[in-house]
Design brief:
This protein is an alpha+beta fold. The protein is built from six helices and 19 strands.
């Protein structure tokens, strides 16, 4: 088995080989909860602790907190992740608003974009706005910056770039986890409500050979179709391809209080079940986004640049945030050491490797 000790040892070696630098002790990226081993099964009756959105396992922190017997997420709870003040100052921020922390260069990293500006204070009158990482690039230029920039319609998208060596140093050898704030109107529903749509893609690139591997968060391959997915419409057709689906971000979910199982996405439609609020605002993260394949590729030594493409639709209220902190997620997956050391099998990876965890069954 690929134990936690073996994982840490490998990542320390990979970091040293890739950067020529000494290994940075874990924890430098700031405090974040240890997440359970991802178990996002496709049978709704067997969902345990997360939902599968294409290549990413998505954890609801409110749901994990509920399962842990702590009720609504509050300071001091196991799955409370503060995203304002000093904690967000210590994070690697991909997107926030002018009211949030947008300067990543003061983290002492050699090559990283500052955070993109997300919509803020959108009127809650059944209208909405969309979000793309459009020009201008919110940072000074560094070698590798804008290597993967693209276009969408008439918009130029520089995207968010960071050197892989900087990500590794920031994480200190631990798992890369994206944390997302849901900060919509607290009324339920999509427009003028708690729900929204999201899409994201992380690309790791070897800029010397122009080879890359991508990991996508979308509604194209999900655990609960179509409840997790939404097709593009005339008002939100801003995804790369016409066939791409949005990931539907629900502000509320319904949970069986007796078993901890997910009953439905959205508020409870009957008196049965507890409605759990996932719309936690700008001050604390609502979701954790994790891909074990992305983490393996990140520490493989094959790539020198990481690019994030983040898109959102049906935003009202706002602002949403996306930021990076480290965590430590057990995978319980046996992986041949030669595959890890040589980096074989990384190109063309898709999906998330998931194994059920022992003990009491949870929900998603």
């Amino acid at each position: 088995m690929f134990t936690q000790t073996m994982k840490s040892a490998f990542r320390a070696t990979a970091l040293s080989v890739a950067t020529g630098a000494a290994f940075v002790l874990p924890g430098v990226a700031g405090a974040a909860p240890v997440l359970p081993s991802a178990d996002c099964l496709t049978d709704p009756s067997d969902i345990t602790n997360c939902l599968k959105f294409d290549d990413f396992a998505v954890y609801s922190l409110a749901f994990l907190n509920y399962q842990n017997g702590e009720g609504d997420v509050s300071p001091g709870d196991t799955y409370y992740v503060r995203s304002s003040g000093q904690p967000i100052n210590d994070a690697l921020v991909v997107a926030t608003s002018p009211g949030g922390r947008r300067n990543n260069t003061d983290l002492g990293l050699a090559g990283v974009d500052d955070a993109y500006n997300t919509p803020n204070s959108v009127p809650g009158n059944s209208s909405f706005v969309n979000f793309l990482m459009e020009s201008p690039d919110p940072s000074p230029t560094f070698t590798g910056d804008n290597f993967n920039q693209t276009t969408q319609g008439d918009a130029t998208l520089p995207l968010w770039d960071v050197l892989v060596s900087d990500v590794q140093s920031f994480l200190g050898g631990e798992d890369l986890v994206f944390w997302f704030n849901l900060n919509e109107e607290n009324k339920g529903g999509l427009d003028d409500g708690q729900d929204m749509y999201a899409w994201g893609q992380v690309t790791l690139t070897d800029t010397a050979t122009n080879t890359s591997v991508t990991f996508t968060l979308s509604g194209n391959d999900t655990s609960l179709f179509p409840e997790q997915s939404a097709a593009q419409t005339a008002g939100d057709s801003i995804l790369p391809n016409a066939s791409d689906m949005w990931a539907w971000v629900h502000g509320e979910i319904c949970v069986d209080p007796a078993t901890g199982d997910l009953v439905e996405l959205g508020p409870c439609s009957t008196s049965f079940g507890d409605t759990v609020n996932q719309n936690l605002g700008a001050g604390q993260a609502a979701f954790a986004l994790y891909s074990p394949d992305l983490n393996t590729a990140l520490y493989s030594g094959l790539y020198d640049l990481m690019t994030v493409d983040m898109r959102m639709a049906h935003i009202d209220n706002g602002y949403e945030q996306l930021f990076i902190l480290n965590s430590d997620i057990p995978t319980n997956v046996p992986v041949p050491g030669t595959i890890l050391l040589l980096g074989l099998g990384l190109i063309g990876m898709a999906g998330v490797s998931l194994l059920p965890r022992g003990g009491r069954r949870a929900a998603a």
